[in-house]
Fold these 2 entries.
Entry 1:
Amino acid sequence: MHSKNLRAYLDSATGISALLPHAERLIELRRIYKELMPQRLLRSSTIVNYKQENVVIFAENNAIAAKIKLLTPRLISDFSKRGL
């Protein structure tokens, strides 16, 4: 693909520009997640996706996932307070 064609694709609605709002949302969610999570859990988890109004969190192991699950009501409340 020629560089001119590549640039046109990336700038088109079906190109990278269509992904930009989703990427920006993930960056914002990760920033807020860093503020909300205890440091010990933050080192072993991260937000990996956001789809259909659900935040998808990756945890390194089941113990971390269980601890995060216990914090879910508080996380939902805190994200909601920030308009998310």
Entry 2:
Amino acid sequence: MTSPLSPVGITAVAALLIVTACASQSTSEATGWFGTHDGVPPKASKVYICHGFGCAYKTPVEYSRQDLARLRAILASGRASPDAERQAIAKAVVWQERRVASTVGSQDDIGGFDIENAGVSGQMDCIDESTNTTSLLLIAQRHKMLRHHRVSAPVARGFFLDGRYPHATATVTEKKTGTVYAVDSWVHENSKRPDIMPIERWLAEGDRWFQSS
């Protein structure tokens, strides 16, 4: 007869499931990410904000004309160069996190490794954050707000065996050079500027939040 899992065992299983989700990596186009990570792709001007870890909850948020005008203005500030557009993308991610916070209940979302919040509405893991940022970027791309980049699929790093915590990030690809950039909002608390860097650098970095815990 199989004995029931202890609380510690249940926690370990939950951790394994979340780690496995964060370690998975999409090799398809950006839209292919949603089907393999329990997300819902944006429709017209509506996004489905993932939270609770692994897209356990999906809260629809409809962007109004005013919202889209604001998003366009933010991204237009970066039209001069690819680097400027990446800075504008960072500002757009901050804008979205503030915009949806009251609807989703994510205003107190904790950044980084916070497995104790698995299943908590309003808290987000790397899958939630990658999905939400990708949704925002796809909305921007659909409305022709991006000049220097196209939205690419999220990417993952780390397998524990190499000493790094498994972690995923949204990405964009610079059109002129083909360089892929991580747009990583998971590492910071809600509405803080995401980390944006070449994907090679992002892949090479150890997870400083996990290592210091």
